[in-house]
Amino acid sequence: MFKKKGQSTLEYILVFTAIIAGIIFAATKFMKPATERSMEHVSTQMEEQVKRIKFDKFNK
Fold first, then answer.
1. What is the pLDDT of residue 60?
2. What is the full DSSP assignment across 17-55?
3. Looking at CB atoms within 10 Å, which of 1, 6, 13, 26 has the fewest?
């Protein structure tokens, strides 16, 4: 009923989709916390610098 070529192409597409889904899952599972920590660190550093600039400005 189906051609063998059509079946193998569908199989490759399914395997490729599974690999992509695995990559997306890993990215959200492992990279998201690291990105959030980095962004929090940058935010904290920026807040400290703003406080320092304000302190220096008012103490001149």
1. 66
2. HHHHHHHHHHIIIIIHHHHHHHHHHHHHHHHHHHHHHHH
3. 1
